[in-house]
Amino acid sequence: MLIIGIAGGTGCGKTTVVNKIINELPEGEVGVISQDSYYKDTSHLNYDERIKINFDHPRSIDFELLVEHLKALKINTPVNQPVYSFVKHNRTGDTVLTHPRKVMIVEGILIFTNPELREMFDIKLFVHADTDERLIRRLKRDISERGRDLDEVLSRYQMTLKPMHDQFIEPMKEYADMIIPNNKHNTVAIDIVRSIITQKL
Ligand SMILES: Nc1ncnc2c1ncn2[C@@H]1O[C@H](COP(=O)(O)OP(=O)(O)O)[C@@H](O)[C@H]1O
Ligand SMILES: O=c1ccn([C@@H]2O[C@H](COP(=O)(O)O)[C@@H](O)[C@H]2O)c(=O)[nH]1
Q1: Could you identify the atom of ligand 1 that is nearest to the CA of residue 140?
Q2: Does the beta carbon of 185 lie inside 6 Å of ligand 1?
Q3: Is 39 in the pocket of ligand 2 (CB under 6 A)?
Q4: Is the ipTM beyond the 0.95 threshold?
Q5: Which atom of ligand 2 is closest in space to residue 109's alpha carbon?
Q6: Half-sphere exposure of 185 (CA within 13 A, CB side)
Q7: Sorted alphabetically, which NCBIfam families does this protein's record hold (predicted)?
Q8: Strand order in the sheet with 123-128
Q9: What is the pLDDT of residues 135-144, one digit of tens each?
Q10: What percent of the chain has pLDDT over 70?
Q11: Which domain CATH number covers 73?
Q12: Count of domains forming the chain
C-alpha cells in the first residue's frame, strides 16, 4: 500500500486537490481518509461549550484512532471511519465502512504534526495558498456549507485559527516532499501526483 499525506492550512484546497486527483483514476483503487473525521468526540459537552474548542490545535484530533485505522488498513482490514458534523461540531454517531486500497490518501490540516502518523506516509505533500486567499475561501465555504456567519469565521480566525496555523501548520512544510502552489487551480501538479499514483496501480 502506498500512503500519501496531504497537509496544508484550512481553505488551501486539500479536499479539492484530492477530488481532482482521484476523479480520473480507476474507481476502487484509491481510498481517502480525512483528518476531519477524527475530531475527538465531544458528546459530553453542550453546543455552547463545543464552540469554544480550539479546533486548530493538534489535541483536538483523535490521532490514536487515526493511526490505529491506518495500521489496520495497511494489514488489509477494513475500518469504520467516524462521520463528523461541522454544523454540530461533533461526531454524528454514524460511521463509513472504509476498505483498504492500493493507494490511501490521508488529508488534513494537522496530519504532519503527529510523529507516528507522519512516519507512515510514503509521500508527503503540502498544499499552499496565500493567507488572504485561504481566509476568503474559508469565509465563503463556512457560510454556505458549514452553518457559520461572518462574525464566527473572523473571530475564530483571529482567536485560534491564525495563531495555530503559524505555530503548528506552516512549520510542517519542512517535512513535505513536494509543495503544491494552489492560489490558482494547479492542473500540472495534480497530473504529476496522479502519474505517481498510476505507476503504483
Ligand atoms: N485553486 C482554487 N481556486 C479557487 N478556489 C478554490 C481552489 N481550491 C479550492 N477552492 C475552493 O476553496 C474552498 C476551500 O477548498 P477546500 O478544498 O475545501 O480546502 P481545504 O480542504 O484545504 O480546507 C472550496 O470552496 C473550494 O471550492
Ligand atoms: O467542529 C469543528 C471542527 C473543525 N473546524 C474547523 O475546520 C478546519 C479544518 O477543516 P478544513 O476542511 O481543512 O478547512 C479547522 O481550521 C477548524 O477551525 C470547525 O470549525 N469546527
Answers
A1: 25
A2: yes
A3: yes
A4: yes
A5: 13
A6: 8
A7: PRK05480.1, udk
A8: 30-34, 103-107, 2-7, 123-128, 178-181
A9: 999 999 999 9
A10: 100
A11: 3.40.50.300
A12: 1
